[in-house]
Design brief:
The protein is built from eleven helices and 14 strands. The protein is of the alpha/beta class and about 325 residues long. About 50% of the residues are buried.
Length: about 325
């Protein structure tokens, strides 16, 4: 082999080695969702990918179980520990059940945060709420009450009975009931973030409560199923479905009149913020402690309270005036 050829080969090998080393230094951040195949979390993954591109040295592992169970998430967490990821950002199906597995990840030096649906404090460094829990709870009741000037019976269709965020928002809803005259919550049922079960539970509510005037579903899966069930029952205009949903999935139901309004934060922003926070903690650029203000890139900063929790942004209301515009985005 000639000298020039040897030099070219050596240079090629060196370049490949440098590239491999650079790739190996990328931070591996796992975005663990309640279950795969849910539009809200798919949108959050878009935000995570945006953050990774912006940061430049991050690989995103978008993962979760096929069903909304703690057992499924625990299997995913154990797999990520074995892969020696740098950070885990999780939306938990059960705040307590997943905590021991996440504690093991922390003990292995893996940065762990929760977002959207929280984890018990011993299983994470901090929690990112999509918005203030109090604001979310109040907004859900307000959207129902705004269309019930004389008050009326209202039911709640939640996700799983163990979902941290859902239970917190429901408690906040109950706290503000005295502020809304005549609003009476008659039942809370659980659709487990499954379309078919949420639809069936809505049918059950309609049958059990003939004077039902509104259904609050603080879950993007449940609100769509409930609106469809109301439409199929011929009760559009008689029962208003509200809560938390995606514009792309709710636009048709707003147009039909089954939903007067609903709210949500931008899930793309939420996935983006969770990724930036995970990176800053994993690289030592920030520390999760009470009072800390942690950078979230274009989303500003999040300030942690005494429980090491912080809120990203206020919920935004969608109705017939704006839903079509946002449906094109997420």
């Amino acid at each position: 082999m000639g000298i020039l050829k040897k030099l070219l080969v050596t240079a090629a090998i060196s370049t490949a080695l440098i590239a491999n080393v650079a790739h190996a230094e990328n931070k591996k951040i796992a975005l663990v969702v309640k279950a795969l195949g849910i539009g809200f979390f798919d949108a959050a993954n878009k935000g995570a990918q945006e953050a990774a591109k912006e940061l430049g040295d991050v690989d995103i592992i978008y993962t979760g179980p096929t069903d909304t169970t703690a057992e499924g998430q625990i299997e995913v967490i154990n797999s990520l520990i074995a892969q020696k990821v740098d950070a885990i950002a999780i939306s938990a199906n059960d705040r307590d059940a997943v905590a021991p597995a996440l504690k093991k990840a922390l003990d292995r030096g893996i940065t762990v945060i929760s977002w959207d649906s929280g984890v018990a404090p011993e299983g994470r460094l901090m929690h990112l709420n999509p918005s203030s829990n109090a604001l979310i709870g109040n907004m859900c009741v307000k959207m129902a009450a705004d269309n019930l000037p004389e008050g009326g019976d209202v039911a709640i269709l939640s996700a799983t009975a163990t979902a941290t965020n859902q239970n917190t928002w429901i408690e906040e809803m109950k706290k503000v009931l005295p502020n809304y005259k005549g609003i009476n919550i008659v039942a809370t049922v659980y659709g487990d973030d499954k379309t078919d079960k949420s639809y069936t539970e809505t049918q059950g509510l309609i049958k059990a409560y003939p004077n039902l005037k509104a259904i609050i579903a603080p879950t993007s899966v449940g609100i769509v199923a409930a609106a469809q069930a109301v439409e199929d029952a011929g009760l559009t205009g008689k029962i208003n479905v509200t809560g938390l949903g995606l514009p792309s999935e709710m636009a048709g139901h707003v147009k039909s009149g089954a939903s007067k309004s609903f709210a949500i934060w931008n899930p793309i922003d939420l996935g983006y913020a969770a990724t930036i926070i995970s990176y800053n903690l994993a690289t030592g650029k920030a520390k999760a402690e009470p009072g800390a203000e942690i950078p979230m890139g274009r989303m500003g900063t999040v300030k942690l309270d005494e429980n090491r929790e912080g809120a990203m942004a206020d919920p935004f209301v969608y109705d017939a005036k704006n839903v079509e515009e946002f449906a094109k985005i997420f």
